Amino acid sequence: MPASEQRTDYEPSQSVTAEILYLVNLLVIVIFSLILFLGGIDGPYTWMIAIIYFTIAHSSFIILGMIGLIKALEGLCWSYPLVGKTIPDGC
């Protein structure tokens, strides 16, 4: 998209971004705590599942953040799946 045609009227608020960040952090802590509570802190399989979950969850957040950054640098509209702000028509 040429620079003259980029949309400038769509600006996600920082409060929405902060709310998403708090929600995601809370979700990671709750799930990690449940894994440790249900599996026992001394179980080797518990730690294996916890490390796999931690790796998958954080790598997916990094990938979504990179996609959002790329879209922002291109001047395109983008929203996080499921929890993101609704994109206006015409984006």
Task: Tell me what the structure shows.
There is one protein chain. The chain is 63% helix and 0% strand. The protein is mainly α and 91 residues long. The chain has a domain at 14-74. Helix 1 (14-39) packs antiparallel against helix 2. The longest helix has 31 residues, at 44-74.
**Number of beta strands:** 0
Computed structural class? mainly alpha
H/E element sequence: HH
Head-to-tail CA distance between termini: 12 Å
Q: Count up the helices.
A: 2
Outline the fold blueprint.
Blueprint: H1 14-39, H2 44-74
Short recap of the structure:
Helices cover about 65% and strands about 0% of the residues. The chain is mainly alpha-helical. Helix 1 packs antiparallel against helix 2 (about 45-75).
Question: Keywords for this structure?
Answer:
91 residues; 0% strand; single chain; mainly alpha
